[in-house]
Amino acid sequence: MTPAAVHHGHAKALHAKRQQVLDAAYAATPERFVRQEPRPPALPSAAWINKPTTEEVSSLNSTRQVSHST
Which stretch of DSSP H or E encloses residue 56? Predict the structure, then answer.
């Protein structure tokens, strides 16, 4: 699954299409799948090109906080 597919909301449709392809492959040649029927990998909850580190997220959060003084 590409980051773009997850970001643009296409992940569920692609996941369903992958399952259809795997179902067809299983129906055609079940002997290839000795353990169980094939399933696509789980859907990712987030996709990153360059995932920020915990330190980067902390520094961004601290700079975004606005102090309200009276």
Answer: helix 54-64
Q: Cα(11)–Cα(1) distance, rounded to whole angstroms?
A: 7
Rg (CA), the chain: 21
Is the pTM of the predicted complex or chain greater than 0.70? no
Q: 23 — phi, psi (to 5°)?
A: -65, -40
What is the rounded distance in angstroms from the CA atom of residue 55 to the CA atom of residue 22? 41
**DSSP states along 6-52:** HHTT-HHHHHHHHHHHHHHHHHH-GGG-SSS---PPPPPS---SSPP
13-26: pLDDT as tens digits: 999 999 999 999 99
CA–centroid distance for 9 within its chain: 10
